[in-house]
Amino acid sequence: MISIKQVHKTFGKLHALNDVSLELASGKSYALIGPNGSGKTTLMKSILGLVVPTSGQIYFDGKLIARDWQYRDKIGYMPQIGRYPENMTIGQLIDMIKNIRQQDTLDEELIDAFKLYKMFGKRMHALSGGTRQKVSAALAFLFDTPVLILDEPTAGLDPVSVELLKEKIQHEKRRGKLLIITSHILSDLDELTTDVAYIYEGKLHYSNSIEALKTETGEKRLGKAIATMITQKQLIDSINA
Ligand SMILES: Nc1ncnc2c1ncn2[C@@H]1O[C@H](COP(=O)(O)OP(=O)(O)OP(=O)(O)O)[C@@H](O)[C@H]1O
């Protein structure tokens, strides 16, 4: 569904993405992992067309995204830090976005689950970090898109809300959506994803199913499996150096 081919992105001298190629298939759920500053958000924003690669191509359903912005209607995006018109209330913001998208069928399950209706009159600048995250999550799922890109979706949420959001993600996964999720909480990703892509210093170092990674490393937990895979890679690199 999404093909990333030899994508490079430089910011000045920094190679934020360095020759990244990755196939993302419909019905699968991808954990995009890597340390801070490794290029995860840059890759997600490149898929969304919010960052334009320095070179390389990205295809959505076989079409180059650079020539067809319509594909964005098929993606729900939850940013790491949601930036919104700060003087608007939650209700006004949601109405504005509904008006822009002009879509008849809406999925308001998260608005209900997070009880956002009770806070519709609150202005964005007055929200706690967690409530802002809930608004971002509700907006990402609102248009029932076939693709969901979630950048650290559970960060800053209270434990009850984390579970509500994880249930929603699981539900959408079962419905066959393509999910791309970053998180530093690997136990969350273990529950939510089928595949893993590990990115380090802008390079894609590993991509496979989580089951294959666990078999290769002999580890049952994703966190342990990733740590073992990284150690093994470092060992091979030091032998080859
Ligand atoms: N607009 C920009 N201008 C300059 N440098 C940028 C810009 N956006 C990202 N970078 C740099 O690109 C690198 C990759 O950043 P990115 O946000 O993709 O990392 P990340 O893997 O998502 O990190 P984190 O886990 O901290 O969210 C970082 O060194 C970052 O400082």
Automatic annotation (TrEMBL):
PANTHER family hit by this protein:
ABC TRANSPORTER ATP-BINDING PROTEIN ALBC-RELATED (PTHR42939:SF1)
GO molecular function terms attached to this record = ATP binding
| Higher taxonomy | Bacteria, Pseudomonadati, Bacteroidota, Cytophagia, Cytophagales
Keywords noted in UniProt = ATP-binding, Nucleotide-binding, Transport
Q: Which residues form the ABC transporter domain?
A: 2-226
Query: InterPro entries, per this entry?
Result: AAA+_ATPase, ABC_transporter-like_ATP-bd, ABC_Transporter_VariousFunc, P-loop_NTPase
The protein here is known as: ABC transporter ATP-binding protein
- On whether Nuclease is a keyword of this UniProt record, the answer is no
The record's Pfam families line, in alphabetical order, gives: ABC_tran (PF00005)
